[in-house]
Amino acid sequence: MSERFSGYLDYNATAPVRPEVSAAISFALDYPGNPSSVHMSGREARSRVESAREEVARLVGVSPGGVVFTSGGTEANNLVLQNSARQNRHVFASAIEHDSILNVLPALQNGATLIPVGVEGLVDVDALAEQLGKNSGPALVSIMLANNETGVIQPVRQVAEIAKDHGAVVHCDAVQGLGKVAVSIADLGVDWLTISAHKFGGPQGIGALIVGDESETPTAMLFGGGQERGRRSGTENVPGIVGFDEAAKCVASIRDESQRVRALRDKLENEIQAAADGVVIVGETAPRLPNTSCIVMPGVPAETQVMSLDLEGVKVSAGAACSSGKVSASHVLKAMGLPDEQTGSAIRVSLGWASGAEDVDQFVAAWTKLRQRLDDRPAA
Ligand code: PLP
User: Which end of the chain has fewer surrounding CB within 10 Å, N or C?
Assistant: First the structure.
């Protein structure tokens, strides 16, 4: 694998762009054209956007008209939630959603209810049913497919069935799932899906809201030239959309990538558990994404671990990557009820398409060296 990606184990923050994707983007950049222009260059750009729409639609099992391109997962999540406010829907969301869901909730005029999760990191479906039972008005349930910090896969289909029994519409933030597990809007039983290209080898800054039933499309948040059939104005990000298309093609065609990545992740976990006592793998007994490991080295601040590993050329995150670069205690681990000494000591290791055995070896060597150094410290 390329030297450039050596020691890079932070795919849940962003995956390296796949070579096929960079080639396609570079081609698109060389051929300018606004998809709204009527001349040949415009028509060519339009055709690239529409074939990408078809590819992305195929990947998640909707008709092409159900794909609304956005600037990424954050915008698609906001689109759904802001729309709910306009529809006077009360929002029910799990306590471990991404900030692009959680930070919108306080502003929703019709209110929001957080649904707790259990110790394994799975949403409490009984609590959801109980809360929905108390609600008399229109409602939206928003549940992530897989958690970005722990990789724990949520029982989305079951959540959707409970929600539908109570007449609620359902949104699933599938940003961390796509490219790692199969994602189909029909199998999940939800109305809307959020996806983002940069989590599976596409470029940053492009994503989509997937709409199962086009007559139920959320009303626009951005108004202007009426692109995306009035659902999201603004000149389309053609190079980004072309890259999204290519990443979707890679994901659709590479069948054994998840198995390979799972084997690497399992090797990494087994080796560090064999090397030291007291290591906790968060969500270990729950269904998890094949690429993610949330590892607690008790008593050692996560920032110390991240910085020490970085000095050895290993790139991982402490909980969620945060725009300010500072690390605060993870709301996900807190919601799971982990004790304080563990929530501050968890790092997230996430693998992907370019990861190889040498990255795992590098991680294990750096992690063991740090553990050893700390163990050898004279007692205070
Ligand atoms: N949802 C989840 C679960 C995520 O992990 C992320 C990104 O980390 C997002 C949404 C936001 O996606 P984007 O970076 O495309 O805005």
Answer: C
C-alpha gyration radius of the chain = 21
Give me the mean pLDDT over the 90-118 stretch: 96
Q: Which atom of ligand 1 is nearest to the CA of 75?
A: 16
Q: Residue 13, SS3?
A: coil
Distance between terminal CA atoms of the chain? 44
d(CA 45, CA 238) in angstroms, rounded, equals: 7
- Nearest alpha carbon to residue 171 among 196, 141, 148, 195: 141
Question: Which has more confidence, 3 or 121?
Answer: 121
Angle at 150 between CA 102 and CA 322, to 5 degrees: 50
Domains (ranges, CATH) in the chain?
Answer: 3-16+254-372 (3.90.1150.10), 19-250 (3.40.640.10)
- Predicted confidence (pLDDT) at residue 289 exceeds the cutoff of 50: yes
> b vs e for 187-220, b when ≥16 Cβ sit within 10 Å of the residue's Cβ?
ebbbbbbbbbbbbbbbbbbbbbbbbbeeeebbeb
**Which amino acid does the sequence have at 57?**
A
Is residue 172 classed as helix, strand or coil in its secondary structure?
Answer: strand
Q: How far is CA 145 from the centre of its chain?
A: 8
Ligand 1 neighbourhood includes 317 CB (under 6 angstroms): no
175 CA from centroid of ligand 1 (Å): 6
Give catalytic status of residue 172 as yes or no: no
Q: How far is CA 269 from CA 133, 264, 315, 338, 360, in A?
A: 41, 9, 16, 19, 9
Does the Cβ of 147 fall within 6 Å of ligand 1?
no
Q: For 310-353, what is each residue's pLDDT tens digit?
A: 999 999 999 644 444 555 779 999 999 999 889 999 999 999 99
Question: What pLDDT, on a 0 to 100 scale, did the predictor assign at position 144?
Answer: 98
How large is the average pLDDT for residues 352-377?
A: 94
